[in-house]
């Protein structure tokens, strides 16, 4: 049973990738046709001015595929804009590889995407055919192979064929998804010798972001201690001094002051615990990531549905980052989204921890408006992760975070 569930889950994930790849393949076909038109026009000498634009179109589609594949497995870095100058652009190794990719993917991506989408559609259509076969003419049975359906027995045979389509979809969809991703995995990564320089530049940027995030975190802790705990402790000291002076003069008043000092000390301890939890939540050690996130979901003011599929523990720093990402995201949902529900899904796949938060609010989330999204991105990139935010006006808002799993 566990094997069957795993196969079904893998086929559903593969179908998601095939649908996304079909969209990218359609764009790649359009880019290929435009590049072919420009190439033919260049033969007559009238298309040279359109070459940079055509290369930028190919680069845009290739970057879309890089982002899609990076959400599924190992990240593929983007090379940046197409170089200026026709000669430089034509000799750029990224451009050459992208031109080869767009030609190959236009065929493989479309075929695998169409087959992968057709299999479950045929499965649903033929499996349910015995329920609605009376609504169509006897010679209009659905499917690739057409035959006359004269009664329920013939319709049941169509249903059996639908079960076969379903089995084929479950069995072949992951292989089709891997085949669809193969051109991009082969041609879209940086050429040998270029990957290292891009990686150095990327690590330099993420190191700077990590230092900024660390400085921001230190300032947050300092403000929390200065504005909260320190003031409470000063109040406790003042009240204790007042109580000492009142012991001889008015013992009843001293008892009241000592009660106030005790309340202030308890508040200071509570604020100190909050600061400590903000550094590294102890609940992660006590209950693990799933239990810690369950606590966040249970205390969220907006109804939250949580799904965690992490069989083994990740590194403490990765779990802490995932915890803070979910905590900050839920805070944003409560404060800014106007949502009636929020879904949180966490799973470990291909050596990466995948976190997604989606709400049905009004959308239009913007990192530049001080909602904490910039802090989330910096914290994620500091661990060599990725964050993708989709929030069109009107919603829904979806945040996808990928973190490499430490051991």
Automatic annotation (TrEMBL):
Main enzyme class: transferase
Xref: SUPFAM superfamilies: ATPase domain of HSP90 chaperone/DNA topoisomerase II/histidine kinase
Domain of life: Bacteria
Transmembrane segments annotated in the record for this chain: 31-58, 102-123, 155-177
Extent of the signal sequence: none
Catalytic activity: ATP + protein L-histidine = ADP + protein N-phospho-L-histidine
Pfam families: HATPase_c (PF02518), HisKA_3 (PF07730), Sensor (PF13796)
EC number: 2.7.13.3
GO molecular function annotations of the record: kinase activity
PANTHER family in alphabetical order: NITRATE/NITRITE SENSOR PROTEIN NARX-RELATED (PTHR24421), NITRATE_NITRITE SENSOR PROTEIN NARQ (PTHR24421:SF10)
Protein name, entry field: histidine kinase
Coiled-coil ranges per UniProt: none
Record-annotated Histidine kinase/HSP90-like ATPase domain positions: 317-407
Keyword terms, alphabetized: ATP-binding, Kinase, Membrane, Nucleotide-binding, Phosphoprotein, Transferase, Transmembrane, Transmembrane helix, Two-component regulatory system
